[in-house]
Design goal:
about 160 residues, binds flavin mononucleotide, five-stranded mixed sheet
């Protein structure tokens, strides 16, 4: 079944870039997204977020409306919205990957593929490159021993 896919990037406000705050955000988002049948992945690189959200078009649009006005980040820039595509990020309702926390070999792999500035992978503004970065991050998470898959498989339907 096809779903809508939305990708945006933004700049984290200083107080959100603590591990505790981010893990809280991840947990709350995963619970809410599971209820709405949304799956996704959120990358943090330095202070830049890149997030993909997939699910029912109305649910994804409504969520993005809330995210866009969230004070925990700024300069929210919509990179792409596709109304009907196969679900590619079905592994987690929400998963946060901090690229600075990647093990050395995995950071080196990312650094060989993407531009690096001040030790941080530069989050691309180009849609294809941004999508590639998200897919690489997904692949690294799935192949890593520290992978934490959702206990419940992602469903196309919102929870009853
Ligand atoms: C970078 C970032 C990503 C977020 N991702 C999600 C998400 O995937 N799902 C979600 O429910 N909330 C997410 N939020 C939180 C929402 O902005 C919002 O706080 C939440 O949906 C609750 O909204 P409400 O208080 O209006 O109900 C995110 C916030 C930020 C800053």
């Amino acid at each position: 079944m096809n779903v809508a896919r939305l990708i945006y990037r933004s700049i984290a406000t200083a107080d959100v870039v603590s591990n505790t705050t981010l893990r809280e955000l991840e947990g709350q988002a995963a619970t809410a997204n599971a209820k709405a049948g949304i799956s996704g992945l959120l990358i943090l690189s330095g202070n830049v977020f890149l997030q993909v959200l997939e699910g029912d078009a109305a649910a994804v649009t409504a969520l993005f409306g809330r995210i866009a006005t969230d004070k925990r980040h700024r300069q929210v820039e919509l990179l792409t919205f596709d109304a009907s595509v196969p679900r590619c990020f079905e592994d987690w309702h929400m998963r946060l990957v901090d690229l600075l926390d990647l093990p050395g070999d995995k950071r080196a792999y990312m650094a060989s593929k993407y531009r690096v500035d001040n030790d941080c992978i530069v989050v691309p503004g180009d849609v294809c490159q941004a999508c590639a970065l998200l897919l690489d991050a997904r692949h690294l998470c799935l192949s890593a021993p520290w992978n934490r898959p959702d206990s419940e498989p992602v469903s196309d339907q919102p929870a009853a």
